[in-house]
Design goal:
- The chain is of the alpha+beta class.
- The chain has nine helices and 27 strands.
- The longest helix is centred in the middle third of the chain and has 15 residues, at about 280-295.
- The protein is globular, with a radius of gyration of 24 Å.
Amino acid sequence: MEDASIQPWSELLPEIIGAVVTRLPTAADCARLRAVCRSWLMAMRHHGSPVRHPPPWVALPSGRFLTSFQGRSARSRRLASFPKGATCFGSTGSWLLLDGIDAEDNTHRCLLHDPFTGTTVPRPELDNVIGNVVNSCYARRVLMRGGPDDLVALRTTDSWDYPFVLARSGIGASVPKVPMATLRIIDIAFLEGKLYGITKAEDLYLLDIGFGDDGVPIVTSAQFVIEHPASDIDEASDEGDEEVDTDDENNEVFQGINDFDSEEEDNESDEDEDSEFFDDDEDSEFFNDCEELIFEGTDYTDDGDFDHKNKFRIFIIRHLLESRGKLFMVKQHLQCRLGRYKDNFTRKVKVFEADISAGVWMPMVSGLGGQALFIGTSLIKFVPACGEIEEDAVYFMDTCDVFSIRSQTNKAIWWDSDYWDLMRSALYENQWIFPPDLVV
C-alpha cells in the first residue's frame, strides 16, 4: 500500500521546479523535464526559458572545427558556409578573422566570418595588413568595438611593422606606433567603446582614438589610468607562498616544479643566464621559437632561475580583457620545457580587476564569481560556468590545460592522442570560437 504522505512528482511546487531548471546543465535536460508532465511544462513556462551558454568550439586554421572542447572526440568537420580557400587568422566572440586568397590574382582578402549564421563581411582595408603578416606572425588579439562593420583593433606578434592595427570599415587602416610603441603596450581591450592598453609594468592607459583627415582611425594620445600597483599586490600575496619540493610526489600543481619567487630581471641579465642555460644550438633555437610563436609581442619574463636539469623556464604572460562593463588583467605563469610542447603547462594564474576610480588593480582572491575564463591565441573571454564548463576555472589554448583559481591547481583537458595530434599541427594558430547562447 502506498504511503499517502508521499506526494506525486507532478505536484512539486513551481518554485522548486524553477530552482531545478536553473541548475540543469544542458538543453537536452530541459527538454526532458518539460516532457515529464503538463504541470512541469507549465512551471517551466512560468519561470521563463533559461539561457544556456554552449561550450566553445575550436577552429583549426584549415577551417575545420572541433565541437567538443574537452577533446572527447577528435573528429573535426567543415561547415558549408566557410569560405573556400580561406584560413583562420584570429577570432573574437563568434566571429573568425580569415585570410582569403583571391583565385584570380592570388591576392589576400580579409574577411570576418560567423560560422554559426553563415555571415561573411569583407574588410578590404585590412587586405594588405593580412597579406603582409599572415605568413610571418600571429594575431595576439582581435577586437571589434561593435559589430563586424565597426572599428576593428588588431594586435599581432609583429612588434616591429604591425604591432597594432586600427581599421575603419570602408575607410582604411593605420598602424599607430606612437604612442603605442613608446608606451610598450602589450595588450588591448575595448570598454564602453574606448580602447585601453596595458604595459609590461602593468600600467593601464586609456588610448584616445581620433580620425585623420582621410577618416582613418589613429591613436591621438594616452592617459594614465593605473600606474604600477599590481606588481606590489602580487609580491605581497606571494610572501606567504611555500617553496614546492620537486621530490614531493604529492606536489599540488604538477610533479617536478620548482617554486621560483625571485625578482624579475632585466633583459641583459636574461641573456647572460641564457648562455649558461643553453647546452647547444638546438636548445637556443627552441626557446627562440617560443619567443617568436608564443611570447613575442605579448610580454614574457623569467620568474627566477633556470632549471638546468629538466631544461625548462617560466614565462609570465599578461592579458587584458573586458567583461560586464569592467576591465581585468590576467597573469599566466607558463612553464616551457625544451623540445616537449606537450609538457608545457600553466603553473600559476592570478586575476585582477581594474578599479578605475581609485586607480588600482584589485586581486580576485575568491574565484571568478561563478564564471570561467577562456584564453586562446587571439581571444580571451569570461563565460558563465555551466555543464562541462567548470566554475572558477581558466582554460588555456596554448597548453591545453585548465587551471582552478580556487585551488591553484591544474589538470590536462586534452590528452587524447588523436586530438592532441590535431591541436599540435597548428598549436598557436587554433582559435576559441563561441556559439550563440541558446534559449531552451
